[in-house]
Amino acid sequence: MKKIVFIIAFALSTVCSNAQFTKHMFAKKPLINLENFDKQRIHFGFYLGFNNYDFKIDKKYDDKDILVDSQTGFNVGLISNLRLHNNFDLRFEPGLSYGQRNLRFSNIKDPVDALREVKSTYIHFPLLLKISANRTGNIKPYLLSGVSTSINLSSNFDSKDDNSANRFRLNQRTYNYELGAGIDLYFEYFKFSPSIRGVFGINNEMIPDNDPNSPWTGNVAKMSTRGVFINFAFH
């Protein structure tokens, strides 16, 4: 998470240090950039960003901890924006997200067996409602809310091997709801939109081991994704 905060601070400081940005964004009477941009019925863009995936784990009993070590991953995707109203847009943002979570099982003494590296490559399909405030100069904040589904290309869902063969299995498809916030910054030739978004998995992603008393999955009632996305969009 510290890496993500550093990246955000660096990106924003780079943008804000630009003299043209300071002059036009924060002047008392700023020069209005892309004045008619948001009046388009449909427009497109792309985004690059970072993620921090986690797991929410519901255990059957509480005497054995399962620790989740989250790693910073990356996102890349496209944006299709449909204008519904002056302050409402419908957005479809298909993309690719890569992340890794390391699971540590405190009930297992062997350090090799106690660690499972869960690498995930998601094809992510979010459908979002964007609720914007009125534009002030070249700045417009907004909120995001919606649902998504993801296909995990690294799920091992069809593998007959389980954790006894060092193979951690997840369901291939996940369903989520998403909440976020961001800000549109209007430049002379493009619109730049940094945003932060929480992704909350709904379904149980874990496929239990063949042994119901497995030291890896026997104590898990439900395992679902939690994630933070930080995206930098260009329109």
How many structurally independent domains?
1
Average residue-wise pLDDT: 87
CATH class: Mainly Beta
Oligomer: single chain
Query: How far apart lie the N and C ends?
Result: 27 Å
Q: Class by helix and strand content? A: mainly beta
Outline the fold blueprint.
Elements: H1 2-16, H2 19-25, E1 42-59, E2 66-70, E3 72-85, E4 88-92, E5 95-105, E6 115-132, E7 139-152, E8 173-186, E9 191-201, E10 220-234
Antiparallel strand pairs: 1-3, 1-10, 2-5, 3-4, 3-5, 4-6, 5-6, 6-7, 7-8, 8-9, 9-10
Account of the protein in words:
The structure is a single chain. The protein has 235 residues and is mainly beta. The protein has one domain: Beta Barrel (Porin). It has two helices and ten strands, in the order H-H-E-E-E-E-E-E-E-E-E-E. Strands 1, 2, 3, 4, 5, 6, 7, 8, 9 and 10 form a ten-stranded antiparallel sheet that branches. A hairpin with a 2-residue loop joins strand 3 and strand 4. The longest helix is centred in the first third of the chain and has 15 residues. It is elongated, with a radius of gyration of 21 Å. It starts with a helix and ends with a strand. The mean pLDDT is 87.
Output the keywords.
single chain; 235 residues; mainly beta; Porin; 10-stranded antiparallel β-sheet
Task: Provide a short characterization of the protein structure.
This protein is mainly beta and 235 residues long. The protein has one domain: Porin, CATH 2.40.160.20. Helix content is 9%, strand content 53%.
